Amino acid sequence: MSWAFLRDLLSGVNKYSTGIGRIWVAVVFIFRLLVYIAAAENIWKYEHDEFECNIKQPGCENVCFDHFFPVSHIRLWALQLILVSTPSLLVVFHVAYRENREKKHNQTLYKSPGEIDGGLLCTYLISLVLKTGFEIVFLILFYKLYNGFKIPHLVKCDVRPCPNTVDCYISKPTEKMIFLYFLVATSCLCIVLNLSELSYLLCKYSVKCYLKRYTKEHRGSASGCHKSGTISHRRAAAARPVHDSPLSLPLNEQDGQENISPLT
Questions:
Q1: What pLDDT, in 10s, does the model give residues 113-129?
Q2: Angle between helix 173-239 and 118-145 (nearest 10)
Q3: Cα 209 to the chain's mean position, in Å?
Q4: Which end of the chain is less packed: N or C, by CB atoms within 10 Å?
Q5: What gap in Å lies between CA 2 and CA 10, rounded to an integer?
Q6: Could you tell me the pLDDT band of residue 241, with boundaries at 50, 70 and 90?
Q7: Is 163 exposed, middle or buried (0-12, 13-18, 19+ CB in 10 A)?
Q8: Among 58-67, 113-122, 227-236, the least confident range
């Protein structure tokens, strides 16, 4: 199976991710995808052929294998990798939409098409929720399908057409269990990273919106106080009484003062 498309997808998402998102990409690429390709795929490659029961009844081994392993671990792991990585396409498509919109209008509509804000922030948060949901669902599936996260050395099968209870042996059980624990650990690590990034983005933009609104209200109250102070000053100036001066005396009083002689 070719995983080049998943590698390219993760490389594209890395450009638009936060610091925590880049750590998530590294974990998925190195500790999950490369481990799957290099080791895990070969361990489960011949699991059906190496599954043996102590009876040669036709069809008994096939029925018992299907009963204990309804879905192969490695195929379920591959499906998990694909579905967990797919929500990142939403972010890539949203950035591509922004870039095409700018080309269509032939003008700059965003500070940066890949900057996480506005609608892209909502898309990014939705992708984080989906990735976390897929991780949790697959962990529950692994636990329910295989009755826990253990691979036994021996299983007892009494499913028809087996004539009685037969013993069936699983190949490389210890090695498979180690890789299964590694799968569960990396899944839990990715869940923690997704929740951390989700909390970080929510806190960051909540604080940003609060500071923006606080600054706007502070400026509005300051301008209102300035306006009210200016109006009060004008009203006080208008109500101030005018002092008497010689120029403001009536003409008849000024004439009387001029007619008085210093001799009298």
A1: 556 667 778 888 999 99
A2: 150
A3: 18
A4: C
A5: 15
A6: low
A7: exposed
A8: 227-236
24 — phi, psi (to 5°)?
Answer: -60, -45
Quote the pLDDT of residue 101: 77
Average pLDDT over every residue of 100-106: 76
Q: Rounded distance, CA 162 to CA 150, Å?
A: 25
- Between helix 88-105 and helix 118-145 the angle, nearest 10°, is 160
* Residue length of the chain: 264
- Residue-wise DSSP of 143-200: HHHTTSS---SEEEE--TTSSS-EEEE-SSHHHHHHHHHHHHHHHHHHHHHHHHHHHH
Q: Estimate the share of the chain in helix, then strand, then coil, as percent rounded to the nearest 5.
A: 70, 5, 25
Whether the CB-CB separation of 110 and 165 falls below 8 Å is answered with no
